[in-house]
Design a protein that fits this description.
By secondary structure, this protein is α/β, with parallel strands linked by helices. The protein is built from five helices and five strands, in the order αββαβαβαβα.
């Protein structure tokens, strides 16, 4: 499933989507950036509440399909601009990380 199809299926809000055709291949949930770097896989939807510029750097290193910000977290415009330039999709949901994972498990 592509990130674009995922957004349509789940109703997540698009904050930044420079690469809508990235394929999703799994999910990783985590807020500790060093753990995400070592544990998340390429193509994962990364569920987090972290919204600083370092999340874009980690997402780029791991090559996740998108960052899914839980609990209506909204990053600063600078973060979104950097994500756009680096090809990192950022979407959001009002759900908690746990609820978002449950939603994803059903699709």
């Amino acid at each position: 499933m592509t990130v674009e199809a995922f957004v349509k299926e789940t109703g997540c809000k698009i904050l930044c989507m420079p690469c809508p055709d990235k394929e999703i291949d799994g999910v990783y949930i985590g807020d500790l950036l060093s753990w995400v770097m070592g544990k998340a896989d390429q193509g994962n939807v990364w569920i987090t509440i972290m919204s600083n510029i370092n999340t874009v750097a980690v997402a780029t290193l791991v090559d996740v399909s998108c960052i899914l910000l839980a609990e209506d977290v909204v990053p600063d415009p600078d973060v979104l601009n950097t994500a756009e330039s680096k090809g990192i999709n950022i979407i959001s949901t009002s759900l908690s990380a746990y609820e978002a994972a449950l939603m994803i498990s059903k699709i």
